């Protein structure tokens, strides 16, 4: 006996079978049960509500927080022959009214809507007259007030259960630790829902962390050198920083575009569209960019500044390699980043409880950055998931760091901070330790201190590493009231008294400009043979032209992974082409002849 869900999966989506717990989730929701789904980016969350919506009578209503997410999902579904639409502020009144008519007439399989619109009395009244198959609440972590993407409107989505108790609900997210999972279930009345928690591991991602040298842009350029012609995202701390980094990348010949909330809306939208539709664009952005972006062939995500938390870092890096192919995530940070973020948190308007939580999350991220252990083990451990053994796909596994006994250096550093009055930043304290006769040192008489010159055995780079790791270890903290001056914490006492030993991560020497340091080879896709590469390039060019003609992102035509499979298989007829994963009936009918013609022309 055939399986209706599997038949639809193959016929519409072109996939030969389910992955992970997809089949169980689809069965749970299709049969009318509620579900809470935690699945990493690229794991196939969307299928978990799209298939049940097609299998059940009525229209699946998808609550989505961002316009970009809705548009990408709908464009992709329409390519598959699915009757999908969205309602958001980009539509004029006539277009919105037509979609509402289609909903009431039973002419839609899926409808995406923002929570703000859904919660209006008018729209809820409209739903009373429609046939609803299910409610899907995407990006469900937005319900958590302790999360990094809190949306107050999500708290009111309990109205769905109250007014339509017999319609199944499925809440989905890629980023939620155990407390956030409990809050999602509580806030959305999903305590009795069946929970599906997939592994948070993204084995196709290679993790790398470097210590910032100056502004970090030179190091970023070295990193990007290994990703020429690939699409990627560079995250920066502020709008000003985004503009500066984008300009420097452009000056170095990289096709980079800025994106932040302070830009003209039309320019920002145009930049996002270019990123989605064209190959090889590097988007330099604040964290406002990326949530809901379905572009599967993002080959790298780089943070040129320190993120705010492990959850934010995990979600942002998760935008790389959604197609399951090899991708790389890269982070550079320095002591200045730590000082800036601590100031931002402590000077914010949040209550003390929230500030303590955010500072704790920042400390956890610092621990991850300074760790000499497997990055993947540390990252998954934050989400309560063990990882047996070294991953073999992070910088610490590929090039194990050395450590050294930093106890004496730490005592010198802490003593110098104390003797200079706990009112200066690391730069000045390093000058004192190294015996520099700067104007500032002489102005304050610090060349007469007992700590002046006691650290001349280490260079400035090594001392910066010492101070960075002292802050990361909680032995020093930035004084917000005195412009980030370093001061001792209670935890520094045992070190100063010789009661505690410390080991520090060894500071790697700066690599020569334009050369990669040991162990920094990029994660990359397996090479195609010459003939397959010719076919792949031709298919990508055809896809780009087709996408521009339809004004849709290139990846909604076909993913890179599908084009690679076509190029390698070189099918000779429609039957052979239709057996390649990612090619459903609608796409075979729509593009099959054109694909075969391009293969024939480039044989």
TrEMBL record:
Q: Which superkingdom is the protein from?
A: Bacteria
Q: Name one GO molecular function term.
A: helicase activity
What organism does this protein naturally occur in?
Lysobacter panacisoli
**Needs which cofactor?**
Mg(2+); Zn(2+)
Residue stretches making up the Helicase ATP-binding domain: 26-194
Q: What is its EC number?
A: 5.6.2.4
Q: Where is this region: Disordered?
A: 504-529
Q: What keywords appear on the UniProt entry?
A: ATP-binding, DNA damage, DNA recombination, DNA repair, DNA-binding, Helicase, Hydrolase, Isomerase, Metal-binding, Nucleotide-binding, Zinc
The UniProt entry's sequence similarity note says:
Belongs to the helicase family. RecQ subfamily.
Signal peptide positions on this chain: none
Sequence ranges assigned to domain HRDC in this UniProt record: 529-603
Full protein name: DNA helicase RecQ
Q: Which residues form the Helicase C-terminal domain?
A: 216-363
For this protein, the record's SUPFAM superfamilies field holds: HRDC-like, P-loop containing nucleoside triphosphate hydrolases
Gene expressing this chain: recQ
Catalytic activity entry = Couples ATP hydrolysis with the unwinding of duplex DNA by translocating in the 3'-5' direction
User: What PROSITE patterns does UniProt report for this protein, alphabetically?
Assistant: HELICASE_ATP_BIND_1, HELICASE_CTER, HRDC
């Amino acid at each position: 006996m055939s399986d209706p869900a599997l038949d639809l999966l193959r016929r519409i989506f072109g996939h030969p079978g389910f992955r992970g717990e997809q089949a169980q989730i689809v069965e749970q929701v299709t049969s009318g049960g509620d579900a809470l789904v935690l699945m990493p980016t690229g794991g196939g969350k969307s299928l978990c509500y799209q298939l049940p919506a097609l299998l059940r009578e009525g229209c699946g209503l998808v609550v989505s927080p961002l316009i970009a997410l809705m548009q990408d999902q709908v464009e992709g579904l329409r390519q598959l022959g699915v009757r999908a639409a969205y309602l958001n502020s980009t539509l004029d009144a006539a277009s919105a009214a037509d979609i509402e008519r289609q909903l009431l007439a039973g002419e839609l399989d899926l409808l995406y809507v923002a929570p703000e619109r859904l919660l209006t009395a008018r729209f809820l009244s409209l739903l009373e007259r429609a046939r609803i198959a299910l409610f899907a609440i995407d990006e469900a972590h937005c319900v958590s007030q302790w999360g990094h993407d809190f949306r107050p409107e999500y708290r009111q989505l309990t109205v769905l259960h109250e007014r339509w108790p017999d319609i199944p609900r499925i809440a989905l997210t890629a980023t939620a630790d155990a407390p956030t999972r409990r809050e999602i279930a509580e806030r959305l009345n999903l305590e009795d829902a069946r929970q599906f928690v997939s592994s948070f591991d993204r084995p196709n991602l290679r993790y790398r962390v470097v210590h910032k040298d100056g502004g970090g842009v030179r190091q970023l350029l070295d990193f990007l050198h290994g990703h020429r012609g690939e699409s990627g995202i560079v995250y920066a701390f502020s709008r000003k920083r985004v503009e500066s980094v984008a300009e420097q990348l452009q000056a170095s010949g990289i096709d980079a575009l800025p994106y932040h909330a302070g830009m003209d809306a039309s320019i920002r939208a145009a930049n996002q569209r270019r990123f989605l539709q064209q190959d090889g664009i590097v988007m330099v952005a604040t964290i406002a960019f990326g949530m809901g972006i379905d572009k599967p062939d993002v080959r790298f995500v780089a943070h040129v500044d320190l993120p705010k938390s492990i959850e934010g870092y995990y979600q942002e890096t998760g935008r790389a390699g959604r197609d399951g192919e090899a991708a790389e995530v890269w982070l550079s940070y320095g002591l200045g980043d730590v000082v800036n973020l601590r100031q931002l948190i402590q000077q914010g308007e949040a209550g003390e409880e929230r500030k303590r939580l955010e500072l704790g999350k920042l400390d956890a991220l610092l621990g991850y950055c300074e760790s000499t252990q497997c990055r993947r083990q540390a990252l998954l451990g934050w989400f309560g998931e063990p990882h047996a053994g070294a991953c073999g796909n992070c910088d610490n596994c590929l090039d194990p760091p050395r450590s050294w006994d930093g106890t004496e250096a730490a005592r010198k550093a802490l003593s110098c901070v104390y003797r200079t009055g706990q009112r200066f930043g690391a730069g000045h304290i390093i000058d004192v330790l190294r015996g520099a006769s700067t104007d500032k040192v002489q102005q304050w008489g610090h060349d007469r201190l007992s700590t002046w010159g006691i650290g001349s055995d280490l260079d400035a780079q090594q001392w910066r590493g010492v101070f960075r790791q002292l802050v990361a270890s909680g032995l020093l903290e930035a004084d917000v009231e005195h412009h980030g001056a370093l001061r001792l914490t209670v935890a520094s006492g045992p070190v100063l008294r010789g009661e505690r030993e410390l080991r520090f991560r060894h500071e790697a020497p700066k690599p020569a400009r334009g050369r990669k340091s040991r162990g920094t080879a990029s994660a990359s896709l397996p090479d195609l043979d010459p003939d397959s590469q010719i076919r792949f390039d031709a298919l990508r060019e055809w896809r780009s032209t087709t996408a521009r003609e339809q004004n849709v992102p290139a990846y909604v035509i076909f993913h890179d992974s599908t084009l690679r499979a076509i190029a390698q298989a070189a099918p000779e007829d429609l039957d052979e082409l239709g057996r390649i994963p990612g090619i459903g009936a609608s796409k075979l009918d729509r593009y099959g002849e054109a694909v075969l013609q391009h293969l024939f022309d480039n044989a």
